[in-house]
Automatic annotation (TrEMBL):
It comes from the Bacteria. It is a multi-pass membrane protein. The keyword Methyltransferase does not apply. Belongs to the multi antimicrobial extrusion (MATE) (TC 2.A.66.1) family. NCBIfam families: matE. This is MATE family efflux transporter. Keywords: Membrane, Transmembrane, Transmembrane helix. InterPro entries: DinF-like, MATE_fam. The keyword Transmembrane helix applies.
Length: 429
């Protein structure tokens, strides 16, 4: 899972590096703002991946294959419906979002150019969340790794061809991503159909899938679960978007430098999420199988490895920070700004590793309410109040508020798991 996850931010780093070596900072700033507008939707729909993983892991632990397939079908249906609504309302959405984003005229122009292309990849992007979540929940981590690596390699190659070869600049990065997303969807569906052809055929012939898919009680429980995950993700989205938008208001060089730093942050988060993803699958399986002691053991082992990898990340950034930045951009003013704020990236792995791990634990337990409450407290009790108090420090104040926000997420979930809610959390039905 670590190998699988780390390909995603590495691809983002390649995207940033390709654009970052063009001659103007506004290319990178525009593509960053545009990408944020699209990833805001995909991240907001992260509940599709999370709930699918947790529910399918519990079905896997209970040896309920039919329920596992129903979870997959329900998730794909919801993904297609959400993507369709966004595509229908795309003009309204992009106009409002770009007006809120701010930035220079050039940043606005390239942000719109990027987002108007990328938005057509949403059906594939959202369906891929469900497919990857389902494969992960069914303990097919190697298949997930292969799908992600192949998809991201397609994106990487097309980035180089479209941007450096054909000179399509920001449009090239957006088009490369769309082709990669639909390629990933095709491969994922092919893998599932091939492995589950007999079971899918039987369900279609007996029409049991329609009856189970439309089960009113199950649907209400599904949307109730996803409501809490959605609120949790919305809070996280607000913080990330706020950083991007505030960076745009501080200038083209700042928003470009923050784009570099955010890619490093994603490299940290996706790497540490590899351990969290493994934990959520094993926790979900343990809960579904009724193995309380194994559940506790999974959490303890995962905590150790999360802390160790966080320290290694911090050490790597401490040693190679300057080199990593110059790999991504050679614009002097952007490099200077990125170096100025890079110390926050050095400390973030240790501050944030706990929130990634406990998110995974609570996804496996399918106790989204605790995740929601933790995120609400961290967002509105820490991030925004701290930013307001520290805004005179500019970008440093922004990153300081974000660092405390990540730490608070981990502390509140740890407190709930080990102290306040330990009786409820560790009760396995």
């Amino acid at each position: 899972m670590i190998l699988s996850n780390i390909t995603v931010p590495l691809l983002g780093l390649v995207d940033t590096a390709v654009i970052g070596h063009l001659d103007q900072a506004y290319f990178l700033g525009g593509s960053t703002v545009g990408a944020m507008l699209i990833t805001a939707v995909t991240w907001l729909c992260g509940f599709l991946r999370m709930s699918t993983t947790g529910l399918s892991a519990q079905a896997y632990g209970a040896f309920d294959k039919q329920q596992g397939l129903i979870i997959l079908m329900r998730g794909l249906l919801v993904a297609v419906l959400i993507a369709s609504v966004v595509l229908i309302l795309q003009g309204f959405y992009l106009d409002i979002a770009l007006s809120l984003a701010g930035g220079s005229e050039q940043v606005q122009y390239y942000a719109r150019q990027y987002s108007e292309i990328r938005i057509w990849g949403l059906p594939a992007a959202l369906a891929n969340l469900v497919i990857l979540g389902w494969l992960l929940g069914n303990h097919q981590a190697k298949t997930v790794m292969v799908l992600l690596i192949v998809t991201n390699l397609i994106n990487l190659v097309l980035d180089l061809v479209f941007v450096l070869g054909l000179g399509w600049q920001v449009r090239g990065v957006a088009l490369a991503t769309i082709v990669a997303e639909y390629s990933g969807l095709t491969l994922g569906l092919a893998v599932i159909i091939r492995s589950k052809f007999g079971e899918l055929k039987l369900m279609l012939q007996e029409k049991t899938w329609f009856r189970l898919l439309g089960n009113r009680a199950a649907l209400l429980e599904y949307f109730k679960l996803n409501r809490d995950i959605l609120i949790r993700t919305l809070c996280l989205e607000v913080c990330f978007i706020f950083i991007t938008f505030q960076g745009a208001r501080l200038g083209d060089d700042i928003v470009a430098a923050n784009a570099i730093l955010m890619n490093f942050l994603l490299l940290i988060s996706f790497g540490l999420d590899g351990i969290a993803n493994a934990a959520e699958v094993m926790v979900g399986k343990a809960k579904g199988a009724g193995e309380g002691k194994k559940l506790k053991s999974v959490v303890n082992v995962s905590l150790f490895w999360s802390g160790l990898f966080a320290l290694l990340y911090s050490l790597a950034f401490m040693i190679g920070g300057q080199y990593f930045i110059t790999l991504i951009s050679d614009i002097p003013s952007v490099v200077q700004q990125a170096n100025l704020y890079f110390s926050w990236i050095i400390f973030l792995p240790v501050l944030s590793c706990w929130c990634y791990l406990y998110d995974g634990v609570y996804i496996g337990l399918m106790q989204a309410k605790a995740m929601r409450n933790s995120m609400l407290l961290a967002t509105f009790g820490c991030f925004f109040p701290l930013w307001w108090l520290l805004q005179e420090y500019g970008n440093h104040g922004l990153w300081a508020a974000f660092s405390v926000f990540m730490l608070m997420r981990g502390l509140t979930l740890a407190w709930h798991f080990h102290i306040a809610g330990s009786g409820k959390v560790l009760t396995v039905k």
